[in-house]
């Protein structure tokens, strides 16, 4: 089962965020969260945890830790936004430490904006002003620090915008938001999703399987490499070779052999040389690498350039962090 933790923001003693016509964020996002839980669980593939299922006070850190403690595959914190009356639209935040979530966040923002007929404000990260490399939002930081592989915060619409507040005050629109999110989340994990409830046509429609993200066509090659070396996911299973960067692929790729100069692992070296050539990283003489499976000085030079370009220690050793950068390119 794929484990998801949904966090309905605010609640309990924190009920101040509201629109001018009676919408209360704590109540609206709780309804969205319950609908999303229902939609995901209806596929039979998801186990869903809510950080709260009633009007309850929770700290931001507690919310993230609930997700980490339950070892979920995805954490999503539900919110609606506030700003000047003219501001509107949907936006999604992802962790500064999980750049691979960029595509998932973008799809989520676009889908919710589409079903509501409002602006897609796109995706964002926000870095802490106190600690470099940490997330500004405590709820994101707590979940990410706890080891949750995919962490998002969604602002589905602006309750400070009178037109969007009216949308949020209709229960059918809260369900539409949940259905839009369920569609994207299901697709990300390779699960077929059919819309249900709210008077929607419930006739089965086969959802297309997720496609490879642009610029990540090498994911399938890495998945095949993992399988050929006998590396398995957290449940001891082979990876599905689908080109998608999910928690199982991340888990397995980080367990690829550490590969460095004079390494005798020909398979990993062949991948490294080929991928460096594809990405344009050359030796110190400016020449492309010979793809021969021998990790020599020239391959080490190109690896160091790749590491430096990706903010890693340029030591020429392909370990877990470097493997993850290869995965995310």
UniProtKB/TrEMBL annotation:
<protein>
    <submittedName>
        <fullName>N-acetylmuramoyl-L-alanine amidase</fullName>
    </submittedName>
</protein>
<dbReference type="InterPro" id="IPR036366">
    <property type="entry name" value="PGBDSf"/>
</dbReference>
<dbReference type="GO" id="GO:0008745">
    <property type="term" value="F:N-acetylmuramoyl-L-alanine amidase activity"/>
</dbReference>
<dbReference type="GO" id="GO:0030288">
    <property type="term" value="C:outer membrane-bounded periplasmic space"/>
</dbReference>
<keyword id="KW-0378">Hydrolase</keyword>
<dbReference type="InterPro" id="IPR002477">
    <property type="entry name" value="Peptidoglycan-bd-like"/>
</dbReference>
<dbReference type="GO" id="GO:0009253">
    <property type="term" value="P:peptidoglycan catabolic process"/>
</dbReference>
<feature type="domain" description="MurNAc-LAA">
    <location>
        <begin position="64"/>
        <end position="186"/>
    </location>
</feature>
<dbReference type="Pfam" id="PF01520">
    <property type="entry name" value="Amidase_3"/>
</dbReference>
<dbReference type="InterPro" id="IPR036365">
    <property type="entry name" value="PGBD-like_sf"/>
</dbReference>
<dbReference type="InterPro" id="IPR002508">
    <property type="entry name" value="MurNAc-LAA_cat"/>
</dbReference>
<dbReference type="InterPro" id="IPR050695">
    <property type="entry name" value="N-acetylmuramoyl_amidase_3"/>
</dbReference>
<dbReference type="Pfam" id="PF01471">
    <property type="entry name" value="PG_binding_1"/>
</dbReference>
């Amino acid at each position: 089962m794929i484990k998801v933790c949904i966090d309905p923001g605010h609640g309990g003693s924190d009920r101040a965020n509201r629109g001018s016509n009676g919408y209360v964020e704590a109540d609206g996002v709780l309804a969205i969260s319950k609908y999303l839980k229902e939609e995901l669980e209806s596929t039979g593939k998801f186990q869903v945890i809510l950080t709260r299922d009633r009007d309850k006070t929770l700290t931001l850190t507690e919310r993230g830790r609930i997700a980490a403690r339950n070892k979920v595959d995805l954490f999503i914190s539900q919110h609606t936004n506030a700003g000047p009356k003219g501001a509107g639209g949907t936006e999604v935040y992802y962790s500064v430490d999980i750049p691979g979530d960029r595509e998932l966040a973008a799809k989520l923002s676009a889908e919710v904006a589409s079903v509501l007929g409002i602006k897609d404000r796109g995706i964002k990260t926000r870095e802490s002003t106190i600690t470099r490399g940490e997330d500004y939002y405590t709820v994101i930081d707590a979940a990410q620090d706890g080891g949750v592989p995919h962490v998002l915060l969604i602002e589905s619409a602006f309750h400070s915008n009178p037109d969007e507040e009216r949308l949020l005050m209709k229960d059918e629109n809260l369900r539409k938001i949940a259905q839009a999110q369920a569609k994207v989340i299901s697709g990300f994990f390779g699960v077929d999703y059919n819309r249900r409830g709210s008077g929607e046509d419930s006739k089965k429609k086969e959802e297309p399987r997720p496609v490879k993200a642009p610029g990540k066509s090498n994911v399938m090659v890495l998945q095949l490499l993992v399988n050929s070396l006998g590396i398995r996911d957290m449940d001891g299973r082979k990876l599905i070779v689908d080109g998608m960067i999910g928690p199982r692929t991340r888990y397995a790729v980080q367990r690829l052999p550490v590969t460095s100069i004079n390494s005798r692992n020909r398979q990993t070296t062949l991948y490294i040389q080929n991928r460096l050539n594809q990405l344009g990283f050359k030796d110190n003489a400016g020449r492309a690498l010979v793809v021969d499976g021998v990790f020599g000085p020239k391959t080490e030079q190109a690896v160091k350039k790749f590491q430096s370009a990706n903010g890693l220690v340029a030591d020429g050793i392909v370990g877990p962090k470097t493997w993850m950068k290869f995965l995310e390119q």
